[in-house]
């Protein structure tokens, strides 16, 4: 009886150790996912910022407020708003089909 109890306690300890290891690995993977997401976002921002600058004349002399005013004017146009909405709609629909 005593041996059986000791064996069960050893198995319990091993199971708890495996659980702690798995939880630790899960935290590591979650952190890696956040890092990848952050890197992807940074890459996207840099790429799109470069795209925007390619349309601006002498972007180095414009302030952030100047660029924001330009974007507000550009994106207030009905055609642009509709084009953005259509692009988003196409991409969202395309993702739904892939899943």
TrEMBL record:
Q: What InterPro entries does the database record attribute to this sequence?
A: DUF3847
Which Pfam family, an example, fits this chain? DUF3847
- Among its keywords, does the record have Coiled coil? yes
Tell me which stretches of the chain form a coiled coil: 5-39
Q: Which UniProt keywords apply?
A: Coiled coil
Q: What is this protein called?
A: DUF3847 domain-containing protein
**Where does this protein come from, organism-wise?**
Clostridium porci
């Amino acid at each position: 009886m005593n041996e059986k109890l000791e064996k069960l306690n050893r198995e319990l300890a091993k199971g708890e150790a495996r659980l702690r290891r798995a939880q630790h690995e899960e935290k590591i993977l979650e952190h890696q996912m956040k890092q990848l997401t952050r890197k992807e976002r940074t890459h996207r921002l840099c790429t799109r910022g470069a795209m925007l600058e390619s349309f601006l004349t002498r972007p180095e002399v414009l302030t952030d407020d100047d660029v924001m005013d330009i974007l507000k004017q550009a994106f207030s146009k009905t055609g642009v708003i509709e084009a953005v909405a259509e692009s988003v709609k196409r991409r969202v629909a395309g993702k739904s089909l892939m899943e």
